[in-house]
Structure formats: structure tokens, C-alpha cells
Amino acid sequence: MNTKRGISLQLCTVLLAGLLAFGNASAQGSGQAEKEDDTKTKQAQAVSKEVYEKINKAQELVDAKEFNAALRALNNLYNPDKLSEYEQANVLNYLGFVHYQMENINEAIRTYERMLSIPSLEPQMAKQTTFTMAQLLTVEEQYPRAMAMLDRWFTLEPNPAAEPFILKAQLHYHSNQYAQMVPAIENAMRIARERDKPVKENWYGLLNFAYFQQENYTKVRDIQKILLQNWPKARYWKSLAGAYTELGEDDKLIYAYDAAFTQGMLEKETEFVTMAQLFLQAEVPYNAAKLIEEKMAAGIVQKTEKNYRLLAQAWQLSMEDEKAIPAQKAAAGLSTNGDLDHRLANSYLNIGAYDDCVTSANTALRKGSLKNKDNAQISLGMCLYNLKRYGDSKKAFTDAGKVPRSQRISNQWIRVIDAEVERNRQIRLAEEAAREKRKELEERRAQSGRA
């Protein structure tokens, strides 16, 4: 798995984090509220006056948040030998709710289990309690039992809403059943659209995670595009970039990064360095150089040999050798081998700073560990030639020519040097002859004047 994919995995994990806190508590509270309304109606119809008044008193204690008192009252009331099954169901329903409010989830589960075991339990109450059980078992991380209870609920509910399918997807997630997550989430999305309800951002995040775990990067890419269209965020741009990398769509990678960069969504050093590298790949080296230089000045990109080398490369490709030199000097100063000093020598050569070129080339040769020592000697020879230090230059080319691949170019330069030396010798001879001629003429004129 490469870095991009690693970046993608991290982003998918972030997407999932908020979703797993899916509103169990709020769903529980809402379900209980419905049960309370339904219970009060049934109490008026089928609960004795005495039982109704005691349940009503317990409800008042719950409203006052006197949960222990409510619990004692309901426990005292519950007696299967004296209550009808309908009355038992109502008392257990309130008991479960009180346990939930007291955050005693396991006791709430046990109470609702007793309620579900009542033979004549009203279908609507059985259905609501079954779904509540599925939620509470999820909270308690009893995932196989939660799934079994949820599947039981689906058999009781002919027209389920979208959210229960999301709960089902969560349970598949906790069981590492990533492929099974997909149909559950897609069902939720389909139902939401059919009912003109919003398809939520975190549903797409969960679906993205499911496809990512199956290494279906085509789907990951498509989901990220949907997320960016509706909820543009930095992590979605980065996840999209990771999908492009996995799919080998490197030509599109820069667009994802550039969009995030343009919107100010890049923050980390690695992100800016990657952006600069993508600028280089897209043949816009000037943008790469400006980005690295700016982020170095801001302290975001560290002043390391590697980053200085990237900066120097960007300036060189921008045909800005003078701007590349400071970065090259810094990189060379941090390096223990001579390769960067050799590159610096070439930059000095390009701008005609021959003395500095000689210094850097000699430093490169002194440090050693060069990939191509002969190339450094050729650079040295060229700089010395431009300084008219022909003897030293010829020696540098002679040393370079000891390597077979550099023999031809070294011999060419040696011939140029020999020709230049000979030309200068002929010039000197001509100048000396001219001086002698002028001297003879001056002497003749002087003799003629005396005569």
C-alpha cells in the first residue's frame, strides 16, 4: 500500500468516526416517547384505575428525574400474579425506560426481554420494543444479538424507514462484514429519496468506508465526487486524490490537490511537498518553486536537504538558475556526499560564476561518494577553461577521460584547449613580431633623422 493509499485510509477512518455515534440515545428517547403516548391511551382502555394511577405517579417521578423513587414504585407495582399481561407490559415498558435513563443499559435490556416474552404482547409494542432492543444491544457492543434482534424487527415492520438500514450497516461494520454493508446503506439511500428525505453526508461516509475496505477504488472515487459536490471538505479532496492514485489516474491527481490547495485546505508539510511534486509533473515548475519557498519561509516545510533539493530542481526547470543557487547551497551544506555540490557547480557554470563553479566542483570531488566522478571533473574542466587556466583545465579533462564514457568529450575539450593554447601562442608570436617590426621602423627613422 503506497502513501496515497495510506492517506486515503486515514481519511476514510475520519469519515466513519462521527457516524458510529449514530443517535442511539435520541432514537431511544423518541421511541420511548411514542411508547409513553401509546401506553397512556391503552391505560385508559385496559389498565385498572389503581394500576393506572401508580404508573402515572411513577411517570411524575421520572419527569422530576427522581429515578430511584420511580424504580421502587414500579418494582413494587410489578406482580405477574396480580396484573394482566397488558398491565405487565406497560409496567415493564416504564421499568425499561427508567433503567435506560439511569444508564443501566444491561438491566434495561433484561427488562425489555421479559416484556417481549409476554405471549399476548400487542404487535405495535412488540415491534417498538424489538427495535429498542436492537439499539441497546448495539450500545453494549453485543453485535450478533443486536443483528438478530434487528432482523426480527424487519420481519415485523412492512415499511421500514431509512435509519434502521443504517443501523444494520453499522452492525455489519462491527462484524467486519464490509460487503454486506453496501446493500444496507443503498437501501437506506433509496428509501430516503423515495420519501423526499435527505441522504445524509455520513451515510456516504459509511458507504465509502465499505467500498474502501473492499479495495473498490472506482466506487470510492465516485463517492468522493458526490461528497465534494454537496459537502466540500479537505478530507474528501485528499481521499479523492488517494483513489486517483490507486486507480492509476495520475493525470487527474493534480486537479484534486490543486482544488484543495486553491481552497486553502492543505495544511501539512507532506501535502505541500506533494503539491509541489505534482506541479513539477504537470510541467509548471515555477508554481512548485514558489510554493516550497513560501512554505519554507512560513516554517511549514522543513529546511531539509530533500526539500532544498526539490526547491532547487523547481527553479532550475523554471530556467531560474540564480534563484536555484541559494537552495542548492543549503542542500549541499547539509549533504555528506558531493553530488549536490556538483549540481551547484553546474548552476554556477550556467550563470558564468566560474570561480564559484571551481570551488563547488572541487568540494564535490573532495567529499566524494559521487555517482559520476568523471562528470564532476568535466564541469571543473569547463569552469577552469573559462578562467583561462588551461593547464588545470586540461588536467581535469584528462582525469575525466580515464572513464570510457567520458573519453570522447574529454578528448574534444583537450583538443579545444590545445588549439586555444596554440592560437594564443601564435597571437603572442604575431604580437612579438609586430613589436619587433615597429622597433625596427622606429630605429630606421631615428637613423634617417641623424643623417
Features:
451 residues; mainly alpha; 23 helices; rod-shaped; disordered N terminus
Distance between the termini: 103 Å
Low confidence ranges: 1-37, 39-45
Number of helices: 23
Strand fraction equals: under 5%
Order of helices and strands: HHHHHHHHHHHHHHHHHHHHHHH
For the CA atoms, what is the radius of gyration?
Answer: 42 Å
Class inferred from helices and paired strands: mainly alpha
Largest sheet: none
Q: Look at the structure and give the mean pLDDT.
A: 83
Helix percentage range: over 70%
Coarse shape: rod-shaped
Overall number of strands: 0
Structure commentary:
The chain is mainly alpha-helical. Helices cover 79% and strands 0% of the residues. It is built from 23 helices and no strands. The protein has helices at residues 3-19, 24-46, 49-63, 67-77, 85-101, 105-116, 123-139, 143-156, 163-174, 178-194, 201-213, 217-230, 234-247, 250-262, 269-281, 285-297, 305-317, 321-334, 339-351, 354-367, 373-386, 390-400, 407-450. Helix 5 runs antiparallel to helix 6. It is rod-shaped and about 160 Å long. The termini are far apart. Mean pLDDT is 83; it is low at 1-37 and 39-45.
Compact summary:
79% of the residues lie in helices and 0% in strands. It has 451 residues and is mainly α.
Secondary structure topology:
Blueprint: H1 3-19, H2 24-46, H3 49-63, H4 67-77, H5 85-101, H6 105-116, H7 123-139, H8 143-156, H9 163-174, H10 178-194, H11 201-213, H12 217-230, H13 234-247, H14 250-262, H15 269-281, H16 285-297, H17 305-317, H18 321-334, H19 339-351, H20 354-367, H21 373-386, H22 390-400, H23 407-450
Helix pairs in contact: 1-11, 1-13, 2-5, 2-7, 3-4, 3-5, 4-5, 5-6, 6-7, 7-8, 8-9, 9-10, 10-11, 11-12, 12-13, 13-14, 14-15, 15-16, 15-17, 16-17, 17-18, 18-19, 19-20, 19-21, 20-21, 21-22, 22-23
